[in-house]
Amino acid sequence: MKILHVLLSKLSLPPLNYGGTERVVWALAKAQEAQGHQVRFLWGAADNLPANAAVFDKSVPIEQQIGDWPDLVHFHRPYQGDLAIPYICTEHGNAEGQREYGQNTVFLSRRHAENHNATCFVHNGLDWADYGEPELTHPGDYFHFLGKAKWPIKNLVGAVAVARLADVKMKVIGGHRLNFSRKFYFYPDTKLDFVGMVGGEKKNALIRRSRGLIFPVRWHEPFGLALIESLYLGTPVFGSPYGALPEIVTSSELGKLSLDYRELADAVANVGRYDRAHCHEYARENFNHFRMAGGYQACYERVLDGESLNATAPFSTQSWHDLLPVND
């Protein structure tokens, strides 16, 4: 099959450091090529792109740039235009208000789909060869938070509260100690280490040495790459039961989900009860890029056979970015 992936991102492909969606698209394409498919990309004006990527030209209709090469177009953005070639769209985010989607839209988790009045979803997967081996026996003396610290929905405030209640050190991956933006915050705590926005091996090394991910998000996380990256590198997850988290942290052996910070802190304080090897093996088996590619292959075949991925067009009537309650 000839597959064209469309994402008008300005981040390099593969992403050099940060870039979660870009990393997923790259991993999916690598799995598809390994399975014998031909893959190309229509991308934004990024600094570094592979030879099989074309740069989107704003002055030319996207349908013209797609041309007649692909058997199927996989948009990683909303699209409801007039395209003669079969296509699907993956929605990687949450609606911020009233919104309609194409009938062949794929979401990232069962809850993500349900929130947008849809049924079709494919869990993300990653190419674990990019992550190295986990540290299963001698982790460091800290936990980690992974996400954009200035976004209230990611709930750095709650992660800090849990770490303080458990009296543990925590490295904050995704922000600085002092933030002067509209979401001002300042944490002078000596047990908190802010490492900024890092990616690649630097991020992997920090997670690999961590004892666990503290992730009490206050929104319905569409999927959460931070969860599977952390599990693969051997760390259990301590978070809220919102969005896709219960679909990823599916047993008490993988961590603890609760809206009560004290319950999470108790689990964090007793992190030794969790088996790092089990966390690693679970993520490796269930969230690899070949498994994701299999899910999308099923979607492609349905669309090529003339079926629709959802019985009706998905839609949202509300914002899924509003803060959800927790028991702090």
UniProtKB/TrEMBL annotation:
Residues 165-273 form the Glycosyl transferase family domain. GO terms for biological process: carbohydrate derivative metabolic process. Transmembrane segments: none annotated. Pfam families: Glycos_transf_1 (PF00534). GO terms for molecular function: glycosyltransferase activity. It comes from the Bacteria. InterPro entries: Glyco_trans_1. This is Glycosyltransferase family 4 protein. It comes from Shewanella salipaludis.
